[in-house]
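Q: How would the structure tokens look for this protein?
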Amino acid sequence: MKNPHNSRTAISRRSFVQSSLYAAAGVGLLSTVPSTMATAKAHNFKQASSKRDMVLSVLDMSMANKYVPAAFFMHFGENYKEGQAAIDRHLEYFRATDMDFVKIQYELGMPRVELKKPADWKKVPVYKKDFFQPALNVIAGIVKSAKAEALIIPTVYSPFMCAAQIAGGKRILLQHINEDPGAVAQGMQRVTESVMNYVKESIKLGVDGFYLSTQGGEVNRIPKAALFDKLVRPFDMEVMTLADKKCAFNILHICDYEGKYASLERYVSYPGKVVNTPIALADGKPVTTKDAATLFKRPVMGGLNRLGTIARGTPEEIAEAVDETMADAPSNFILGADCTVPNTVNWETLRSVIRQAHTYRNVH
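A: Here is the predicted structure in token form.
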């Protein structure tokens, strides 16, 4: 990789490598790395009063955000899916990495229903507050502990994603869609009611927005526009419109975990104050953060491949990848990955990456 910033880039890269060496030597970065606010003061940033304000300032597209927020997400494993253990783990991760908002993983899943034929989708139950209570308890605990520090943003899986869980996988869901899309649409409405119940209860608890994840339009799922507009879009829009109406900060996440997209055009009309897109299309064409900003005309989060350098690179390689991402970023930007990073990624590595984002635009 070429280095477009010469000695100035070396400054941020050296800082990253030194932080990573602290981690390798067992030195606690919580005491050696300046806090976000201390870093901002040291570099004479136009200082906001909190992480909350810093992140919300990204939405002002009349100017480039000088301070670049950053956040990375990971699943914490079987022992941290619910209860106080989940609350504590999310908060520990948030503070250890110094990320700029708290993103709460959704770990509850949807129970499988035996669906032998499309008509069986009318049997899908509508889940209410009591079903979602384990996830809501985690949200409540995190809101209580951290809302004063940062925005609280739970994950919401789309109705299509939940329907695939209910069907036991995409094969049965797609088979039934092809056989009788109308029957499946009736079931999708019931699934959507469940998701809406979760969103409404989360809003009551005081969340600031949602990480709104959508699937369904991949080339290996529902690439045809007519079927997508019948089985995916209206149900996505019902959930996302509610979130957009009630919350200040929602992230539209176009998830390519299950497959790639031929185009992202069909998602341009989706709500979400910030967009988080795949880094490449099905034909291999890259989707840069500037491409996403131009297409969606809103701030962008992302830039790094969740399975790429950040997951397997050396400190020098990671620092260089961050510099290149930042150099090519749009004016209104949050550094992150295209999806959840592996839980093998070192938290202290992520802290160093986040620190690099916080100082980048002022140093350069």
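The first strand starts at residue 101 and ends at 104.

Residues 1-48 have pLDDT under 50 and may be disordered.

Upvote if useful.
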